[in-house]
């Protein structure tokens, strides 16, 4: 589904953020990327989304070089959830969720119906929440909206970059449970960045341990626990 072949990224100031990175993420798999701050996790995510270009090597999605995709098509097919909650403050929750589906010119009725389903999926009653403004929701609720907004246009790939790190432990656990539910229900290909090992083991079908831009270990959680 997503394949990195000998990918390196050197930033303009000479920082080697990702070094000779080779990795396959399978369709329907959740891969967690874990490692200390600065090890190249965010850079890896930005490369998938073509927010930045590799210095060398190639990235494929469905066996096609990502450079050969139309950039909008590529991004529409990838949901991106960031650590910083990035809802548009002047749009209602419903409007926030509808942005990409509307750009895709989906049927308005279909969009509204799907919005309700998505809100219910993360435990928010649509009749209460869809007309609220983002600042009328708690941090955890806003982050839930961030997650379902990334799902709204039904992308094949979802990238999550430390989506829960700003949350209190209870919201965090609830959202982890939401993600697990999603994994079962929708079987998306998910790349999930975290620096919390418990979270990486809980959510990952496989865990990719990074250090200084390289893969140190890549294995299923059980194997990783046995060979720390
Ligand atoms: P993380 O939470 O992933 O550790 P950082 O706090 O290291 O993130 O970085 C936050 C943002 O700043 C990232 O988007 C990263 O790309 C950018 N950034 C980090 N280091 C530099 C740098 N030396 N020069 C420019 N941008 C940087
Ligand atoms: P992580 O997400 O694991 O914290 P990043 O991918 O954000 O790591 O950063 C990897 C390395 O690249 C770090 O040394 C960081 O300072 C550096 N870096 C990130 N973004 C930039 C940038 N825009 N310019 C220069 N260096 C950067």
**Span of the ends, CA to CA:** 28 Å
Largest sheet: 6 strands, mixed
Q: What is the rounded Rg? A: 18 Å
Question: Main sheet: which strands, in order across?
Answer: 6-7-8-3-9-10
Question: What do the pLDDT scores average to?
Answer: 91
Total DSSP E strands: 10
| Bound ligand species | adenosine-5'-diphosphate
Order of helices and strands: EEEHEEHEHHHHEHEHEEH
Binned, the helix content reads 25-40%
Form type:
globular
Low-confidence stretches: none
Derived from helix and strand composition plus strand pairing, the structural class reads alpha/beta
Strand composition percent: 25-35%
The number of helical segments is 9
Which helices and strands appear, and what pairs or packs with what?
Layout: E1 2-10, E2 16-25, E3 30-34, H1 41-48, E4 56-61, E5 64-65, H2 71-76, E6 78-81, H3 93-103, H4 108-121, H5 126-129, H6 139-151, E7 157-161, H7 169-186, E8 189-194, H8 197-203, E9 206-211, E10 214-219, H9 221-226
Parallel strand pairs: 3-8, 3-9, 6-7, 7-8
Antiparallel strand pairs: 1-2, 1-4, 4-5, 9-10
The structure holds adenosine-5'-diphosphate (ADP) (2 copies).
Summarize the structure.
The chain contains 9 helices and 10 strands. With 228 residues, it is of the alpha/beta class. α7 links the parallel β7 (157-161) and β8.
Report on the structure:
The longest helix has 18 residues. Helix 3 crosses helix 4 and helix 3 runs parallel beside helix 6. Helix content is 38%, strand content 26%. The chain is an alpha/beta fold. It is built from 9 helices and 10 strands. The chain has a 6-stranded mixed beta sheet, with helices on both faces. It binds adenosine-5'-diphosphate (2 copies). One adenosine-5'-diphosphate (ADP) binds next to loops. The complex is probably composed of two ATP-binding proteins, two transmembrane proteins and a solute-binding protein. It comes from Oceanobacillus longus. It is an enzyme of class 7 (translocase). This is Quaternary amine transport ATP-binding protein. It is found in: Cell inner membrane.
């Amino acid at each position: 589904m997503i394949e990195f072949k000998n990918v390196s990224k050197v930033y303009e100031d000479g920082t080697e953020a990702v070094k000779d990175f080779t990795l396959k993420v399978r369709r329907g798999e959740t891969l967690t990327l874990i490692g200390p701050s600065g090890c190249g996790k965010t850079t890896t995510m930005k490369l998938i989304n073509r927010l930045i270009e590799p210095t060398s090597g190639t990235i494929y999605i469905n066996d096609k070089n990502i450079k050969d995709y139309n950039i909008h098509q590529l991004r529409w097919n990838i949901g991106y959830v960031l650590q910083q909650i990035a809802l548009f403050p002047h749009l209602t929750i419903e409007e926030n969720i509808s942005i990409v589906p509307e750009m895709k010119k989906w049927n308005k009725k279909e969009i509204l119906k799907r919005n309700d389903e998505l809100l219910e999926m993360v435990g928010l009653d649509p009749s209460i929440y869809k007309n609220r403004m983002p600042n009328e929701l708690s941090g955890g609720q806003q982050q839930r909206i961030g997650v379902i907004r990334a799902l709204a246009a039904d992308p094949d790939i979802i990238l999550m970059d430390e989506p829960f790190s700003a949350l209190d432990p209870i919201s965090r656990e609830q959202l982890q449970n939401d993600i697990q539910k999603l994994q079962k229900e929708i079987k998306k290909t998910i790349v999930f960045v975290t620096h919390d090992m418990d979270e990486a083991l809980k959510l990952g079908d496989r865990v990719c341990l990074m250090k200084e831009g390289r893969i140190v270990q890549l294995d299923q959680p059980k194997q990783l626990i046995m060979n720390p």
